[in-house]
Amino acid sequence: MDIQLMGYPPIVRRLVLCLGMLGVSALLLGLTGCSEEGPPIFQVTGRVTHDGEPVGQGVVLFIDDQGFGTSANLRADGTFELASHHGGGIPLGEYHVAITPPDDDYDYDAPEAAGSAEDFPNIPSRYQDVSTSDLTFTITEGENHFEIELSD
Fold first, then answer.
1. Fewer CB within 10 A of the end CB, N or C, for the chain?
2. How far is CA 133 from the centre of its chain?
3. Domain limits at 51?
4. What pairing do the DSSP bridges indicate for beta strands 59-63 and 79-81?
5. From start to end of 34-143, where are the E strands?
6. Residue 34: inside a domain
7. Does residue 17 belong to any structural domain of this protein?
8. Per-residue pLDDT tens over the stretch 29-82
9. Domain of residue 62, CATH code
10. Are 91 and 118 in contact (CB under 8 A)?
């Protein structure tokens, strides 16, 4: 991914990414026609920790090289479960992964007052973008569970 959005808040980066994914999805749907059956999907769960402690606030983002992506909020115990427009899981393949701070407190009227990445030291900045996180996971048939340990 060559889009340089590091200077923008995480919600803006995620919005740009999602809009791009929607465009690609719409294009592919238009080229292939409508179908009631989507690709086979498989359950994806996981847990995110930093220094052995759960990362209880944030968002985990999975995106493949074709532009398909999905995200899930982290629970208080650091766990997550992915779902997509295909249902309770995601299609097979290799995914690039990022962990971002939560968007809940972002104030569009006063962005300078919103929480920043520095407010979440348990999510080091390199993990907040799929192009720098170096996290990749392959979804295989069956259940997929990933333990993601973030380090400084």
1. C
2. 11
3. 10-27+40-150
4. unpaired
5. 41-42, 44-50, 53-54, 59-63, 69-73, 79-81, 90-91, 93-100, 135-139
6. no
7. yes
8. 554 545 557 789 999 999 999 999 999 999 999 999 998 999 999 999 999 999
9. 2.60.40.10
10. no
